């Protein structure tokens, strides 16, 4: 019996030939990413336990993103504390304001994600990095402290569900719609504790960025990780960004899966996930009139350059509807600059949207676009839980960047022109 | 372990509800505790006494990885969460903190708020003194029990680093 890519990476990182689902292992960690919100408790834990030090500073990458630029005194103190600690521990990879961005967009963009590696961050959407063929998973702050002190961490080897995504995506239907459809089918705990491996001709044809959107939302189905076998596109993406070596692992044809799910996406329409679960996906064409107060474009799910291009294509020469606020948040500083060079930011501003500096911000109800009671937002983010973007009495609807942009223009949730013109 | 049950029988209670992100600019247990479960039940903190339990549905703790959710509950006095099942990172966080997370679908059906419960880890049973019933739960994995007994993951890490 063969092994899945996930089993192979984990085996290689605990010095074994083979590991099987259910086994508890201690795996070597190649990349430890730290952001602002969950790192200070780990620092406190290290200090409280005999002043433990970072075992491998060169493996640590610090990317404050949630409440940056600092939204208040408390968040300023948090980042100040991380900055001091990074100096003490000689951690050099610190992405300060100006080079900053949402961690799951910035980490691969800056070349820190390589196939075959293990990556952790005390953040649930760490699954994103599986798009490049790495084992990447979210953990908590105590796990983070343990990994910082030892360079390894305990894991239960997960079972894998294989998703074979086949067919031809219609114009105006994107990776976001595919993952919303998958979560709609299997539910928010449909992949609990498991790895979700995505394959099929549709995945092959997706850009590396779109593959990140798929893996990013694996956690919204309860999964430990999302992963895609590396191909030429993956290697091209990585090799222009990193000089470090890596090993490419791929799943064996006779690997064992806990489930194999075939999905033909040829008839898939653009979806919107209604409040308050990401599994509440419905075709936009079936939801009737839902007026909106805000449209939010950004996040680790859909704040990359291709997302901004799709939104700008919908908005060029048009105006955001009266009574609607549209906020565009390029996910990283380089994406911001690129969007500026391409004239996308002008298109947004001319349409009456505003463009923010990179930040997680309102995606998690932090700042830069918080909702009041009774307000409704269409968002390119990944979670629509109660109170996620502000008041517990507000509502979040999840959709692709094209749908978000088209809805901002219409003042209500509608299909994009890219889709309608197909 | 003895305490009163506080029942929230819904599935998918997420960490945004357990401790909303608007409080994530804080990381101290007592500060967080003041806002535990605020978006589900604004009277939660007032009702809970030291040593009490939460009883909830499936997939408890889904969503964000914030360990602040465990700390907020523990700080508010909660000693264990009994649920149908747990989301992965929340479950890890419980184990790593030496905080009990018990899977017991039967209890979810039968326990009501205010019932007095005793959790017996050795026999794997929850005794409901109010209703004179007992429920069996899935054994806590050995690995988790070891971390629990040593007082959390960091204690075992300290030993490892020193040796
Ligand atoms: S953009 Fe949103 S989902 Fe992504 S890391 Fe930031 S807060 Fe989390």
Strand neighbour order, sheet with most strands of chain B: 4-3-2-1-5-6-7
Class inferred from helices and paired strands of chain B: alpha/beta
- Characterize the main sheet of chain A: 5 strands, parallel
Q: Class by helix and strand content of chain A?
A: alpha/beta
Structure overview:
Helix content of chain A is 32%, strand content 17%. Chain A has 422 residues and is α/β, with parallel strands linked by helices. Chain A has two domains: 5-263, Aconitase, domain 3; 271-420, Aconitase, domain 3 (2-Layer Sandwich). In chain A, the strands form five sheets. In chain A, strands 4-3-2-5-6 form a five-stranded parallel beta sheet. Chain A has a five-stranded parallel beta sheet with strand order 16-15-14-17-18, covered by helices on one side. Chain A has a four-stranded parallel beta sheet with strand order 10-9-8-11. In chain A, helix 2 crosses helix 5, helix 6 runs parallel beside helix 8 and helix 11 (305-315) runs parallel beside helix 14 (401-410). Chain B is an alpha/beta fold and 163 residues long. Chain B has one domain: Aconitase, domain 4 (Alpha-Beta Barrel), CATH 3.20.19.10. Chain B contains eight helices and seven strands; from the N terminus they run βαααβαβαβαβββαα. A seven-stranded mixed beta sheet of chain B has the order 4-3-2-1-5-6-7. The model of chain B has no long low-confidence stretch (mean pLDDT 94). The site of iron/sulfur cluster has 14 residues of chain A, from helix 4 and helix 10. Iron/sulfur cluster is lined by residues 65-66, 102-104, 123, 125, 299-300, 360, 363-364, 381-382 of chain A.
